[in-house]
Amino acid sequence: MPQYLNPDDLPYPRYGMTPGVATRDFVFAGGMALDLETLRRKDEAKTIPDETRIALDEVKGLLEAAGCSLRDVVKTTCYLADDSYRKEFWEAYTEVFAPGPYPARTTFVAGIAGDCRVEIDAIAARPRAGQA
Question: How confident is the model at residue 8 (pLDDT cuts 50, 70, 90)?
Answer without folding.
Answer: confident
